[in-house]
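Notes from hallway chat w/ T.B., transcribed later so I don't forget. T.B. wanted the structure written out for a chain they're using in a teaching module, and asked if we could keep both sequence and structure tokens in one place. Agreed to drop them here.
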Amino acid sequence: MGSGMLPAGAYVTLEHEYILIVRKNSRREFKTADEKQNRCESALFWEERNIWYSDVWMDIKGTDQGLSDEVSRLRSAAFPYELACRLINMYSVKGDVVLDPFLGTGTTIAAAMTSGRNSIGVEIDESFQHAISPIARHIVNFSNDYLHDRLIRHFEFVKNRLQKSGPLKYMNKHYECPVVTSQEQSILLNELEEAQEHSNHVPANEQVFEVRYSESPQDMAYIQNWYFEKNMP
């Protein structure tokens, strides 16, 4: 049929990811004070929740898989990083273990690192190993930019909300910024400080990554300068 711009000759592309959500056993409970605090720090901003828990995501587009090997490219079904990151933040808390039994290019473990989760990935096709190995070299800057973006988007939401609806009732204690609900008061997006791959005493067909996180909130002045430099003409 062709794939050009002319009517009656182009085809519709298949660009959808279908997500099946299942739960094992009964609803998860957070009983101890530490568990409850960790859950609160892992919470989502109100405006994120409204988008992420909708049944259709219209704001996520396909992404370049970045695979140079022809065999890997033919076998890969890589999905956008944002898709994995959202689901991890929606259905787990910091410190949880995320399992990807079909690891592929490593998108899931990268998203888990960004989100402060542990992860285990399994992949039988060794041709993907070259795509996974560089994660430790790039994940710190990539993840911190992603976390900064989340904060900036919240600041922009707050600015617009204040202009349209007036003051918000609650304040996030880490970032000293307004939030809509009391459940957002303890949100803390932990920056990555260091990531490294361990090779000692690790079998040749296995890879182990370790990430160290900051326990302090991001510096607001730094984020503002970063945002200005990113968006200046």
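Follow-up for T.B.: The longest helix spans residues 135-165. Might be a good example for the class.
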